[in-house]
UniProtKB/TrEMBL annotation:
PANTHER family for this protein: FE(3+) DICITRATE TRANSPORT SYSTEM PERMEASE PROTEIN FECD-RELATED, FERRIC ENTEROBACTIN TRANSPORT SYSTEM PERMEASE PROTEIN
UniProt-annotated location(s): Cell membrane
Membrane topology designation: Multi-pass membrane protein
Gene3D superfamilies: ABC transporter involved in vitamin B12 uptake, BtuC
CDD domains, sorted: TM_ABC_iron-siderophores_like
Family: Belongs to the binding-protein-dependent transport system permease family. FecCD subfamily.
Keywords, comma-separated and alphabetical: Cell membrane, Membrane, Transmembrane, Transmembrane helix, Transport
Transmembrane region(s): 52-77, 89-112, 118-136, 143-166, 248-269, 276-294, 300-321, 342-365, 385-406, 418-437, 443-462, 474-493, 513-533, 563-590, 634-652
InterPro entries in alphabetical order: ABC_BtuC-like, ABC_transptr_permease_BtuC
One family name in Pfam for this protein: FecCD
Protein name (record): Fe(3+)-hydroxamate ABC transporter permease FhuB
Amino acid sequence: MRGRRLPIALLVLSAILGLVIFLARSDAALPAALWLDALREPSPDDFRQAVFGLAVAPRAAVALIAGAALGLGGALCQQALRNPLAEPSVLGVSAGAQLGLVFATLYAPGLLVFGAEIPALAGAALAVGFALLVAARRRAAPVAVTLGGLIFGLYCTSLTALVIIFHRDHLSDLLLWQSGALDQTGWSVAARLAARLACAAALASLLARSLSLLDLSDETARGAGLPVAAVRIMAFTLAAALAASVTAAVGVIGFVGLAAPHVAALMGARRLTPRLISSAAVGAVLLFTTDQILQATPGLGFVPTGAATTFLGAPLLLWLMRRLKSSGGGAAMADDVTRRRWSTGQLASALPMLAFVALCALFIVRSESGWQFAALAGDLAFDLRWPRVMGACAAGALAGLSGFVLQTLFRNPMASPEILGVAQGASVGLMTIAVVAPTAAGLVPPLAAAGGAAVALGLLALVSRGGAASPNHILLAGAALGAFLSGVATLLLMLSGPRAIALLNWMSGSTSLVTSTSALIALGAAVIALSLCVLAQRDLALLSLGDTTASAGGLPPQRTRALLFGLAAFAAGVSTMIVGPLSFIGLIAPRLARLAGFRADGAGAFATAVVGAALLTAADWIGRNVAYPWPLPAGLVSAFIGAPAALAMLVVHRSPRRFR
């Protein structure tokens, strides 16, 4: 009971704070005696009534309703998919909505006459439909829905980023929208969201009893007569519809749907129905109070509410997790691959594939006269090119190994390097230098990125008690820390001025800053990381079976997890320092190796390193040449290579096995 008092007290205080700020600001703008008149029918002769009745009050209502919708959607999604990191915006809904709006803005502006909702909802529906299509052959297994939505969402995000890079002059307003802007000019948005939230709440109440059975295994739930696939699809679709409605109305607002259900659980809402209600209440308070603080703070009017919510809410969640005991580690998630043993010869056969990709990247180039061999391009061009190829190869291997360790360690296919917050920390370090010392060059930017990654790792170690917490606790802490640092990076990006586009390219995974020295450092780090993964294969295998099994095998779970956690952070930090945050490589490279039949052992680590290296090297080569003379970031191009391959393999493989 004592553990519940702190989050409940904080929620109440936050609600009171937001309400007090709203009342004070509203009274200063318009006397309270005139509020009802302004809400009923604002006087056209009184500008203050029009502002209060058509802007101030509707914005507060939208913040409350949108926050409640996101909180409810996050709770439904996490319950349906049995994953503490599942949330509609993470699983491609917001990315699909954003992509739909981008394409409508550029190629079908007539659709925007009816507002942004139609193209945004169409994009979100496409993302949801694709995730369910991928999972259809597995009876909507949680891991299939999760991976399908996550991979397709990353694909949409990369495509949107590429379009923005090429059309940034025409899409400047979209950058504000995608960060969540709550400005209102009437009650139409609030009424529309309220009606949809009411319908969703009614449907959720009808599903609550069936959803509560999903706490059991799928086999047990089916034995009790529950149509597991149908219930999971309905709950996920309902959560996605809520998130899509909010995204279409006010833009992308992340973190609320992720954090609200966990804060509700910390408040003691263990049963599903109270957790759904509490999640909606937490989401409403979090978004409303953040928006009020933002409006009341001088000089922060330019900051979008979505970014500010992450910036202010993530530290609160981290602090709560630091003070309160975490729930036990989650059960191992279901995998969906067919496994077989691979001989040394078969593993070695993967090396020619990597060598072929590297040789193409080195010697086949494109210039003003078309495609040609590097021998015709001059020695200077080769001297500039080989560090990029080596750096891409090493960074891809490092990012893949980091994801391999994390996915095995936490038994979660959504785990990837950015979950640690290391990539975001490196981004913040680099952007800080760009704002404070824009003329800095040489080793200063890479050292700043490394320093930011080290600080992020230290913060995560503090929150997770040196890695001694449960896997779900560490994953959630990493997600909250990453969200917080992403909010800081967004603010710094706005302050970076003319360097914003260059930083955006680096954040998308650019190899343009790689030197011969940094490439050799990355190669050495990749060899060390791969060697350590091979040496630790027994520890990884035992931990992938759970702490109880690991202890029975003579392995101290907490200390070993902390060491392996440091290995993953080291690999992710060096990779980010070299070529920027490459979240897709860390997610997809171990997944492709796993879908190809490799286990969580030394062979799996080797295969993951080869896949990551080949994927990023090929992406860098394509990015440098396909749109010559305009280079494309390798991190974005890798999504176009890896996402279709991963989705195709998800469709082909269908035998469910344990994730290990």
